[in-house]
């Protein structure tokens, strides 16, 4: 079974990328859409496999960082591409995508990881010091970039002025870079699992195998994002038929893009490596803000139209609730089914209110 997975993981990413190139920008019939959806699912599984190979080679928490950054960089590219092409709703695209990523990672992935670990061992154990530092970075970045534009007065709310946007971009990038330094160099021990992995003593993959997996990981993630974009027209039509707001399309695409990290987090939680799951979730949230805001600020130089970053009242309430619950979950360094259920409830509330605002 494992050999079959390895072979599929080697073949699927380049094949999916070739199909992506062939169907990009074209109207495709339903049978081809079925193939695209199957390749999308296969690319997600392949990305998780290659991320684990790379992580085993480089060690944690650097392995979790690679997957988080790879997904975010490709996501940023997709956002900028959609904003350049224009269309209705693009002025809020960056805000909606980043906020969806924060809510899904900090509540959906965190809650699911805690749930899986608590069902297996009754108590999910993790490093409170490192996880708390990551959560503090998420809260600060989200407040500076997504909450403050709603309350500043120099520009019509919810927008930043040019200097304010530049400050938010520099602050986000600087805080993200410092987090990476602390997580992987100065205080690496605070982000390591408190339990030993089941396969910790297995032989690390050879450098050539790890390099191959790194390349295929990028190819798989490009395929995931690209195929999700190809299916966006079908998703938009489905959302419209269901009577849902157009902004819900961004939530659906964000869910698809975050699937590799979700599966990787769940697989680590099943091995009682909750810290790695939390590194993936919170690291993705930090990367989503810390890399997206500076990129959008730079792109706004040549992008036409307004850039709306400020959240609405309902979104700010959900973000505040996420911050408060996250602090209470992280402080003890231990979590049960109750904490998992609370986070999943907040994620469900976000999804429901995104569909019915």
From TrEMBL:
InterPro entries documented for this protein: Alkaline_pH_Ca-Antiporter, NaCa_Exmemb
Topology in the lipid bilayer: Multi-pass membrane protein
Highest taxon, organism lineage: Bacteria
Sodium/calcium exchanger membrane region domain sequence ranges: 35-183, 213-353
TM stretches of this protein: 35-55, 62-86, 98-119, 131-152, 164-182, 210-228, 248-266, 278-302, 308-330, 337-355
PANTHER family in the cross-refs: SODIUM-POTASSIUM/PROTON ANTIPORTER CHAA, SODIUM-POTASSIUM_PROTON ANTIPORTER CHAA
Entry protein name: Ionic transporter y4hA
Organism of derivation: Dactylosporangium maewongense
């Amino acid at each position: 079974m494992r050999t079959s997975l390895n072979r599929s993981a080697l073949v699927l990413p380049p094949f999916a990328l070739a199909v992506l190139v062939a169907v990009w920008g074209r109207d495709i019939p339903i049978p081809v859409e079925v193939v695209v959806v199957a390749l999308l699912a296969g690319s997600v599984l392949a990305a998780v496999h290659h991320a684990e190979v790379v992580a085993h080679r480089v060690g944690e928490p650097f392995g979790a960082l690679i997957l988080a950054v790879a997904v975010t960089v490709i996501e940023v590219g997709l956002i900028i591409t959609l904003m350049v092409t224009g269309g209705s709703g693009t002025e809020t695209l960056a805000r909606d995508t980043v906020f969806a990523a924060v809510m899904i990672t900090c509540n959906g992935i965190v809650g699911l990881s805690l749930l899986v670990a608590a069902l297996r061992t009754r108590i999910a154990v993790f490093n409170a010091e490192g996880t708390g530092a990551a959560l503090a970075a998420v809260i600060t970045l989200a407040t500076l970039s997504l909450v403050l534009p709603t309350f500043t007065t120099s520009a019509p709310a919810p927008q930043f002025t040019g200097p304010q946007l530049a400050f938010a971009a520099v602050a986000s990038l600087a805080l993200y870079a410092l987090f990476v330094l602390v997580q992987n160099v100065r205080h690496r021990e605070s982000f390591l699992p408190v339990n030993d992995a089941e396969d910790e003593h297995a032989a690390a993959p050879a450098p050539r195998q790890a390099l191959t997996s790194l390349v295929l990981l990028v190819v798989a993630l490009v395929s995931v994002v690209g195929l999700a974009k190809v299916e966006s027209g079908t998703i938009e039509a489905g959302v419209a038929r269901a009577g849902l707001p157009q902004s819900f399309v961004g939530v659906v695409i964000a869910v698809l893009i975050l699937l590799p990290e979700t599966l990787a987090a769940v697989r680590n939680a099943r091995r009682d490596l909750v810290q790695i799951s939390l590194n993936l979730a919170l690291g993705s949230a930090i990367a989503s803000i810390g890399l997206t805001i500076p990129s959008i600020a730079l792109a706004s130089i040549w992008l036409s139209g307004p850039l709306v970053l400020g959240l609405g009242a309902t979104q700010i309430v959900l973000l505040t609730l996420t911050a408060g619950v996250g602090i209470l979950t992280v402080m003890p360094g231990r979590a049960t089914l109750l904490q998992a259920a609370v986070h999943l409830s907040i994620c469900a509330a976000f999804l429901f209110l995104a569909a019915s605002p």
